[in-house]
Amino acid sequence: MDTYQIERKRMVEQQIARKGVHDERVLAAMMSVPRHLFLPVEARDYAYVDSPVQIGSGQTISQPYVVGLMTELLDVRDEHHVLDVGTGSGYQAALLGELAAEVHSIERHAELAESARERLTRLGYENVYVHVGDGTQGYPPHAPYDRIIVAAAAPSVPDPLLHQLAEDGRLVIPVGKRFSQLLEVWDRTGDDFHKSTSIPVVFVPLIGQEGWEG
Ligand code: SAM
Q: Is residue 128 part of a domain?
């Protein structure tokens, strides 16, 4: 094992599993995706610490535990078609690429999207597609999605995301105030939507037509 693998193993055991994420597929994906390669070179020493890290354009890669918890809550299966809103570094998209059949990831900052796309291609993620746009509108060309995950905080759940869920689809999204939110899990059964809530979180704002003003 190289140093990064040792640090990654420690992250998975001490920050993710110990705090209650037990889904074996999620833990295996977090063990296999090289998180340090999703950070700017000067920030790689912080890749496996228990906090968010700056990735440029004023944005962050989320805290590993929150990524693990959200991915577990999403309950992704092999055959799923997934939408990831807020590509950022592309790390969450890579994890989803390990777990699902196909992933569409959308980012509003073109430069972040471009570097995430290059990184994911270099690392061989052929089932992950990065798009530039306002993810509060979802991504209609490939809807419906079995699963949708949002890595930025919304003032309320965007309707287009609920309506781009497939039958039996699930959406995981932080919703609340600008600087404090709750993780919400929305399940669709036919035309019915059921919401449950998980832990308090703090995410950067989801900026767009159905989000916050930029
Ligand atoms: N999932 C990312 C990762 O693994 O690195 C971290 C995402 S970061 C916490 C939130 C991202 O959401 C930022 O890159 C931000 O630019 C993006 N974002 C905010 N509003 C958005 C919108 N309406 N559509 C798409 N992306 C948005």
A: yes
CATH of the domain at 178: 3.40.50.150
Please give, one letter per residue, the 3-state secondary structure of 104-158.
Answer: EEEECCHHHHHHHHHHHHHCCCCCEEEEECCHHHCCHHHCCEEEEEECCEECCCC
Please tell me if the CB atom of residue 137 comes closer than 6 angstroms to any atom of ligand 1: no
Q: Which ligand 1 atom is the nearest neighbour of the CA of 91? A: 4
Q: For 34-49, what is each residue's pLDDT tens digit?
A: 999 999 999 999 999 9
Ligand 1 pocket check for 105: Cβ under 6 Å: no
Predicted model pTM: 0.98
The predicted-structure confidence for 88-99, as pLDDT tens digits, reads as follows 999 999 999 999
**Exposure pattern of 34-59 as b/e (b: 16+ CB <10 Å)?**
ebbbbbeeeeeeebbeeebbebeeeb
Active site residue 62: yes
Question: Measuring CA to CA, how many Å separate 117 from each of 37, 62, 84, 169, 180?
Answer: 13, 18, 13, 26, 30
DSSP string for residues in 1-22: --HHHHHHHHIIIIIIITTT--
Q: For residue 114, tell me if it sits in a domain.
A: yes
Tell me the three state secondary structure of residue 186. Answer: strand
Considering only CA atoms, which residue is closest to atom 19 of ligand 1?
A: 206
Domain boundaries, position 170: 3-201
- Inter-residue contact 171 to 157 (CB < 8 Å): yes
Query: How far is Cα 107 from Cα 112, in angstroms, rounded to an integer?
Result: 7
Tokens at residue 126, please?
A: 């052929």
